[in-house]
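B., you asked whether I could sanity-check this one before it goes into the benchmark set. Here's the sequence:
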Amino acid sequence: QVLQSDGGNYCCSVNAATLALIDAGIPMKDYVCACSASFIKDTALLDINYLEESSGRSAELVVATLPKWDQVVLLEMDGRLHEDHLNKVLDTAVKGCKDVYAILDAAVREHVTETTASLSLDT
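And here's what the prediction gave me:
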């Protein structure tokens, strides 16, 4: 049960699942990072919230990528978007995935460093 949500549930779930797999020691060739984007009033928006998702004024584009390999592994759009705006929204979402990757990678490296230090103190 979701107690409170401000949008981006799918993307958050993908990013959390990636971290869970890494924490479990599952070998992966790259992180799977997800981000949403939209196009409202001639502007590409990244990581849209619930109000922007549900307004119905524009399409929501959800993208999941393998950032190190520059591969899109999921592309889903809800709503209609003129093809002239698709590349701008897609580029915004892919850049957002790379930004998410940088944050997740920094958190994983910090966790590994802390865990390694903790294990060396226990012995």
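One thing to flag: The chain has one domain: 9-122. Otherwise nothing jumped out at me.
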